[in-house]
Amino acid sequence: MGLDFSGRVAIVTGAGGGLGRQHALALAARGARVLVNDLGGAVDGSGGSASAAQKVVDEIRAAGGEAIANGASVTDFEAVQAMVGQAMDAWGRVDVLVSNAGILRDKSFGKMDLADFRLVLDVHLMGAVHCCKALWPVMNQQKYGRIVLTTSSSGLYGNFGQTNYGAAKMALVGFMQTLALEGMKHDIRVNCLAPTAATRMTEDLFPPDMLQAFGPEAVVPAMLVLAGAEAPTRTTLCAGAGGFEAANITLTQGAYVGVGPQAPERLLERLDAVRDRHGESVPASGAEQGANEMRLARTARG
Which uninterrupted H or E stretch holds 239? Predict the structure, then answer.
């Protein structure tokens, strides 16, 4: 029941190919009406064409689904607002956002131009922010919304040559953490999806015998769960080749070293104890860090 999208309306950005296309097709196949957004640019974000989004719309319609195309750049907030307006004019509501649009401008940090750093953040991070901001009043009024933000292992764990991409993708996790808290009272659930998939952005990274296993369609089940009526919230799911994991930002039990002139030296001596992962937790909010530090201080005072 939770993965039936009949009567729902979804916006999928970056849906002209790869992961986004598979997301749009899967949502439509399960009954959703889908606005297919894609700028139609190259992997580095240059250029643009309306044909990419329209081809996916044509696929959905040929299969008996309902879809419309949109060619807005997610970096343009006014264009994103118009995109949401297009969906509202057509169907009167928007239930699901899959924020998938992205570009790559990889280079080691020492050689990277700051303009390329900013642009990647603008597309991935601010693009998601623009979509959420434009949809927030709609979902609040409906008292229902499902938002899936596309993060990456490059942000969660790092990847050489992707400081810009990794910074943007980890920022989306932080964005999710608070947006999910703010959306709870109106049943707006916000989650992150970290895919591993062979697309035009990544296919050169996979050995030939694994290309098929890591097809983008293998990531779709995680998206559907995170976008469904029974979705969790504040969850980061990782997906690829039929395998699924959950990623968490944890807090160790820590150790008390006190204050004063020698506190830095004591911290250095006890750093292994501070970093010890035994008994670590996943905080329900940022306040739990302070609560844990208060616990350590009170314990030390006896």
Answer: strand 236-240
The set of catalytic residues is 165
CA distance 273 to 286: 22
Burial class (CB in 10 A: 0-12, 13-18, 19+), 137: exposed
Which strand (E) or helix (H) includes residue 33? strand 33-37
Tell me which residue of 121, 130, 149 sits closest to 77, measured CA to CA.
130
Beta bridge partners of 245: 238
* Residues in Cβ contact with 245 at an 8 Å cutoff, skipping those fewer than 6 apart: 237, 238, 239
Q: Which residue has the higher pLDDT, 97 or 42?
A: 97
The 10s digit of each residue's pLDDT in 234-245 is: 999 999 999 999
Q: Where are the beta strands (DSSP E) in 40-180?
A: 67-70, 96-99, 145-150
pTM of the model: 0.94
Rounded CA separation 277/116 (Å): 37
